[in-house]
Amino acid sequence: MPTFRYVAIGSGGKLSQGVLDAPDEAALVERLRRQGSILMRVETDGRRRLSGIDIGAFRRNGLRAQEVSDMTRELAVMLGAGQDLDRALRFLVETAPNARSARLLNSLRDAVRDGSAFAVALSKHPSTFSRLYVGLVRAGEAGGALAPTLERLATLLERERALASTVTSALIYPAVLMLAAVGSIVLLLTDVLPQFVPLFAENGASLPTSTRLMIDAGSLLGHWGLPGLGALALLVLGANRLLRQPGPRFTFDRMRLRLPVIGGLAREIMAARFTRTLGTLLINGMPLITALDIVREVLGNAAGVRALDTATIGARGGAGLARPLGESGLFPQRTIHLLQLGEETAQLGPMALRAADIHEEKTSLAVQRMVSLLTPAITIGMGGVIALIVGSLMQAMLGLNDLAQ
Predict the structure, then answer these.
(1) Using only C-alpha atoms, what is the Rg of the chain?
(2) What are the residues whose beta carbons fall under 8 Å from the beta carbon of 398, sequence distance 6 or more?
(3) How far is the C-alpha of 276 from the C-alpha of 295, rounded, in Å?
């Protein structure tokens, strides 16, 4: 039975540390819960974990998204259990996974002890804490509800990470499959097929058109493959540089949202980010106009940002938010309908979060459906091209056999 070193926080807000034997971490969590304690950290086999999540390394300029989320969740639990901010930050410093994280957390604690608001301390580390993060904390401090605010913020960060992870993880297998398919075809054209060319030349056979095309394609790849890759890399770099300009970026992002299949998925992802962030900000007491100014930074689409800016102008003039967004035609109708319902019932924040749940679910389903169609399409395409190459070679070999007879 493994041994776990743990740190927990009791019902009275008192921290406790100890060592327990348990079949697994779930059993340890349940045992501590029966004792009225909440597990904060657990370490086994030399690996430190936070609520079952591995703690990784820092980026060069700050914490990774996973670490910011973990820190936020842990701080929320400690404040909710009655700890004051200074003591909670001291605990985070003492149990930091490495020196770099300890320095950052210690900087936050020193600023708070010197009289700065927590939001002001966070704003001094923009590479780690975004305007969204700082704005929510500022609203939570102003309303005297920092612990619930951090809890909602941790949920927001975790949902954002889960959404991005859903898309990225689902596309890994098709990407690897596509790479394998292209590699196999290039290998056949540039290495296997040329070995038969001298045999055809010695026998003076008249090659079929398909075979000649395959041989020419292999020769072209052999001579111009690397220069072609270099030209493609330069083209990608040039396009990336061009897309940094506002005009081309807006055109590209708007066109991406209009594509048949990918566009629908992109709109769902943008709507999920928009509604999740907006709902979280509004529930924490932030004014609508201020919230919209922060939300525009998380959309990740220039066309969506322009549509939101137009809607913000309308909201300032009393026209509401849903109608101007609907006129842009860039957001799903479900988003517009739920936002309009929220405005009519004075429940814009909760309705925005409800819309976010729906969009995230639809995004997950759309990605699964796309991958389920993409994988067999790549397999069939690869098989067809390989069959064409092998068939062309066999046709030429049969011609040689006819000459021999």
Answers:
(1) 29
(2) none
(3) 9
| Residue given tokens 């058109």 in the structure block | 209
Per the structure block, which two tokens stand in for 259?
């594509």
- Domain locations along the chain: 1-54, 58-129, 148-405
Q: Could you give the maximum distance between any two Cα atoms of the chain, in Å?
A: 98
24 φ/ψ angles, rounded to the nearest 5 degrees: -160, 180
Q: What amino acid occupies position 331?
A: F
- Among candidates 309, 271, 269, which has minimal Cα distance to 292? 309
Is the CA virtual torsion 331, 298, 156, 13 positive or negative?
negative
Q: What is the pLDDT of residues 310-352, one digit of tens each?
A: 898 888 888 888 888 988 889 999 999 999 999 999 899 999 9
Structure tokens at 355: 């819309």
Q: Write out pLDDT tens, residues 225-279.
A: 788 888 989 998 998 888 888 888 899 999 989 888 888 889 998 999 899 989 9
Q: Kindly state the DSSP code that residue 2 receives in the 8-state scheme.
A: -
Helices (H), 81-145: 85-94, 99-113, 118-123, 131-142
- How far apart CA 282 and CA 278 sit, in angstroms, is 6
Kindly report the length of the chain: 405
Per mean pLDDT, which range of 170-179, 197-206, 281-290, 300-309 is the poorest?
A: 197-206
> What's the one-letter identity of residue 399?
G
Q: How far is residue 274's CA from residue 260's CA, in Å, rounded to a whole number?
A: 22
Encoding tokens for residue 319?
Answer: 């026209």
Asked whether residue 49 carries a pLDDT value surpassing 50, the answer given is no
CA distance 41 to 380: 49
Dihedral class, residue 63 (left if φ above 0, else alpha if ψ from -120 to 50, else beta):
beta
Distance in angstroms (rounded) separating the CA atoms of residues 331 and 275: 11
Global pTM value: 0.68
Measured distance CA(9)–CA(219) in Å, rounded: 69
As a CATH number, domain 58-129 is: 1.20.81.30
Crossing angle of helices 288-295/302-316, nearest 10°?
A: 170
Would you say 378 and 370 are in contact if contact means Cβ atoms under 8 Å apart? no
Q: Is the dihedral of CA 198, 201, 202, 205 positive or negative?
A: positive
The pLDDT of residue 275: 92
H or E stretch at 32: helix 25-34
Question: Which contiguous run of DSSP H or E holds residue 130?
Answer: none
CB distance 157 to 92 below 8 Å: no
What single letter denotes the amino acid at residue 404?
A
